[in-house]
Write a structure and sequence with these properties.
The chain has one domain. The protein contains 9 helices and no strands. It has helices at residues 11-38, 43-46, 60-72, 93-120, 127-147, 155-163, 169-172, 175-188, 194-212. The longest helix is centred in the N-terminal third of the chain and has 28 residues, at 11-38.
Length: 216
């Protein structure tokens, strides 16, 4: 999520982006937990994660990342990961793929709902209301597209290992050991890797934005 937002560090913009992140990540993690339960794994339910209470999905470091994005447009934010036991899911890896994709899909649905005033216009909103609507669309599309990058621990890797033939799983699974390091490396290298990360999630974001909001 590098230099993604053209953010003016004014209190209203910062507040709108943070609210959008909290709502987006809460719904994202809730949908992971709920889908896992529907597929037979109650691990998340037993930990109280099937809830829309943001506190249950709060991660201090992840929230700090959201603050950095809101203030300067640079960083990465996340909610507390939902625990899932693939061996308890119906379909095992296929079930894991469905559980993983539920998060990004929920963000696309949220973005679509909040894009209606932008897409069809003629809706009068106060200044902060419009900031919040715009942030809900942008943040949720960002959460969806970024999480679809096929690098663990992002959802895209779980989706990929679930939909590819089982022949590929032994080759993809070991990436889980190094995925966090790869992702952190891309983040810490900053300006050098910004084009790389943008190229990974940018096309998906652009496509979703064009379909949901309309051409820029």
């Amino acid at each position: 999520m590098f230099n993604f937002f053209s953010v003016r560090p004014d209190p209203a913009s910062i507040a709108a982006i943070l609210i959008a992140f909290v709502i987006g990540t809460t719904v994202h993690e809730f949908c992971h937990a709920w889908t896992a339960l529907m597929l037979g794994d109650d691990t998340a339910q037993r930990q109280g994660r099937i809830t829309l209470n943001p506190i249950m999905h709060f991660d201090p470091l992840g929230f700090l990342g959201m603050v950095l994005i809101a203030i300067g447009g640079f960083g990465i934010g996340w909610g507390r990961p939902v625990p899932v036991n693939p061996s308890r899911l119906r379909g095992r890896q296929r079930g894991m793929a469905l559980t993983a994709i539920a998060g990004p899909v929920s963000n696309v649905v949220l973005a679509t709902a909040f894009a209606l005033p932008l897409r069809f216009g003629n809706v009068s909103l106060p200044h902060f209301g419009m900031l919040l609507v715009q942030s809900m669309v942008s943040v949720n599309l960002l959460l969806a597209s970024f999480n679809l990058i096929p690098i663990p621990p992002l959802d895209g890797h779980k989706i990929l290992t679930g939909i590819l033939p089982s022949f590929w799983y032994p080759f993809l699974a070991p990436l889980e050991r190094y995925g966090v390091l790869i992702l952190l490396g891309l983040i810490l290298l900053g300006s050098i890797t910004a084009p790389i990360l943008t190229s990974l999630y940018g096309p998906v974001y652009g496509l979703l934005h064009s379909v949901i909001v309309g051409p820029a």
